[in-house]
């Protein structure tokens, strides 16, 4: 019998109050009945948001407690809370204990609810690979997982294999090399850096198995089947905030449990014929690169170094020459100035699948079918912009965070195969401060005469003729030392100086360190604010990592990976 035609209804009790419970189709509802048999308040829970059904009276929080009775069962489900510290309401674990007239009635309810759960939530994960970064953020990764996440996984019947990382790129290497058979997803308990490791591992593993070279800028990468989940435990957690709307471990865990799936665009960054790195949030040159490079000189300050470095770089008031070429996206589909938000169920992202994968057979799964082919995405008329820039930024998402709820580009989409290119030309310090301040309020940061934004499919950045020679003449010993600290782990930059197979590149090779470090010494990242001679070039900040190259090419790969998320829910849904 189809579950949609199953109709279960009976009287149940919650405490001393009688309710009429009803399971039909996609919802389980219970309505309070007063002494005159009149209906009062009704509570309705989508079956897809039921976390679990347990016999007896069961409590999970603050600690597990089970009272086995013959006529009771406990329902656990997603409960939307009041407005929280984000741009959406957080989720919490709802719990209701029902008392039945008899054990037979209780068993019937449990059986029917579990059957409905399997029918309406077939994509829920059953086994997960969890990576915990014990050093990220406030170093609470292990505590967050064991106290908040693990009990919910157990309640939902999800088994997990936990790896506590001890070095940089351990998670990435594990995904690239170990047997992942049986895992439905990989989870990071950490910040954006930990997510980046999983991202590189999942993409690299998928391309290896598909026989696709990641270094080829013209190739269409194979979409990744393995989902990625994020339990926020870092300092900023930009990716989590942008894809869910709040940095809350319980909310993220519940999204993972119910098997939410959010496709995500990824930007590949190349130097000549070599893949340098993947990015999902920001690739920034100028101000944002300088802040990261400057912060490397003040690591002893901890997280405060970012605020300090931002202030120092702002006072330096630098701008840099550059030649930017970009391939525009179709302006009829969407625009970075259309004042829309990419929310859960976004129409633009939903309708982009057919455009991004024109040869995809809808009868099969995109993420289990080899769709690799040479793409025509780089065809079209390129636009060239030359000048001096305070900063050049490319973002595949709004890149919002608690300190900047709108983000770098408020109308950017998560899964439409485009990114937003933001060019901030040379201007006076007050004008640039106005631009930065508008990221924190409701004013339009693009409504300034020295700022332009374009929705693009690909970008190339180069130095104007004559600048490279000056770049090689200059040096900064302090910043070289900072660069060498970044390069102490030769795999940290996920870069390669020898084009080759993707596995060789992503696994890294120790002997390449000297080549990369030598290049950085010649390029010199950024001088301190007391430098007597302003720098002529900046560095690229790629999702919090310094790139070893200045002249790069970027391409957007639409819906390349999938997260355990659903996008930001509209506030009216809370």
Automatic annotation (TrEMBL):
Acidic residues bias: start-end ranges: 466-476
Stretches the record annotates as Disordered: 462-481
Residue ranges annotated for the DAGKc domain, each copy included: 123-273
Pfam families: CERK_C, DAGK_cat, PH_CERK
InterPro entries: ATP-NAD_kinase_N, CERK_C, CERK_PH, Diacylglycerol_kinase_cat_dom, Lipid_Phosphate_FormReg, NAD/diacylglycerol_kinase_sf
Residue stretches spanning the membrane: none
Coiled coil location: none
Entry's Gene Ontology molecular function annotations: ceramide kinase activity
Protein name, per record: DAGKc domain-containing protein
Natural source organism: Cirrhinus molitorella
